[in-house]
């Protein structure tokens, strides 16, 4: 077969698989969010639609599809409908560089288990997160409501502030991997050389920044209900609201996938090569390890949401600039010293 | 037409159309939105040329930083002062004279320059390592001075904001 055609087909297959995986994971993430919140609060949670309420996500989507799409009279129509698209675009394209397994060999050709193995992968993710700010800012501004505007401005200020400590935490990881390629970052963490073990402070600052970037509690000030109604998506309804909802959960998945890739060894399964399995089983176990780690982190995201109260806005900024930023700088120095010792 | 030229013309079209929208749209927010597309197109050019690092830095710095700042300024002032910031057409004669002179200079320099095409790199994968070692070895002084300049700007902004 023609090489070019082969790679195009492989890429298309990967896109279909990854996009569908995201959509299914998001719908069940919402289901588990509701279930876990119910368990935390000693309730039952959704249990009517299907067995144990497992069809609840589909019922929710159907409901949102059938709802009327209300656009405020004073809204800027074009940008108002553009913002959810930007949010979804950013949420879906980020997955392109996250490796969920080692390379596999099919018909004599090596295929990495990721969409695109680019050598600036981490910067690509950072660039897309900074574009994600636009979705929320545009949504807040174009709605023509002060709650939306306040939510949008809060959110962008928060995301810009935490991007800095995020960037510096990532720099610590890059010192060890010597590459911006996500695949190499994972390979550099073989065995127990996970970055979470080597640089726990950087791990902490990155996780906190990931919570802030995804606008999850305790950093969900952009949509703080008691003060801002619904925040930046107050004036959104029907599928446009659903798009923001989808993007938020998709961002949560990216957040945990990034934490796994950068700090928890990605698809590395410690000492799996000493068990003596066949290559296919080994790769299966490694892919499984990635998804188990990601699932655990997603549970952690939800668990935190239902355990910790929201920060006040000034507390949020203080933590971002006066605690997280210096800590991530310290971690960078620590990583540099450690890398020099280990060499 | 190869895929490469197709991509080139697609990005060129994006850049030209969005740049036209930047200068002609009456609403400043639309201008900013179009400017985002222009930056995307330029980043696409860099990526086509194999300068992946520059492409992504273009996005991070211009789209993620500078344009966000501009949008903030426009959005906040627009709402606070209750006067819409609009762009209009005025001062046509002086503007066209200046544009004519400037485009004359540009056209002259473009047509008089001898354009040499650089050799294609065999392995563009290492562009990041190359940029890093050049910045840290050959241009270390300039690099550090730029850092100091940015620090000065930061301290200045902080001290102005505190007043």
Question: Short summary of the structure?
Answer:
The complex is a heterodimer of chains A (343) and B (163). Chain A has 343 residues and is an all-alpha fold. Helix content of chain A is 67%, strand content 2%.
Can you describe what's shown?
The complex is a heterodimer of chains A (343) and B (163). Chain A has 343 residues and is an all-alpha fold. Chain A is 67% helix and 2% strand. In chain A, a hairpin with a 2-residue loop joins strand 1 (104-106) and strand 2 (109-111). In chain A, helix 3 (77-93) runs parallel beside helix 10, helix 5 runs antiparallel to helix 8 and helix 8 packs antiparallel against helix 10 (238-263). Chain A starts with a helix and ends with a helix. Chain B is 79% helix and 0% strand. In chain B, helix 2 (28-48) packs antiparallel against helix 3 (52-81). The model of chain B has no long low-confidence stretch (mean pLDDT 83). Chain A binds chain B through residues 76, 78-79, 82, 118-120, 123-124, 126-127, 130-131, 133-134, 137-138, 141, 149, 153, 156, 160, 163, 180, and chain B through 29-30, 33, 36, 52-53, 56-57, 59-60, 63-65, 68, 71-72, 75-76, 79, 125, 128.
Topology:
The complex is a heterodimer of chains A (343) and B (163).
Chain A: H1 3-40, H2 56-66, H3 77-93, E1 104-106, E2 109-111, H4 121-142, H5 146-177, H6 182-187, H7 195-198, H8 200-213, H9 225-228, H10 238-263, H11 279-305, H12 313-342
Antiparallel strand pairs in A: 1-2
Helix pairs in contact in A: 1-10, 1-11, 2-10, 3-4, 3-10, 4-5, 5-8, 5-12, 8-10, 8-12, 10-11
Chain B: H1 3-24, H2 28-48, H3 52-81, H4 92-112, H5 127-137, H6 140-162
Helix pairs in contact in B: 1-2, 2-3
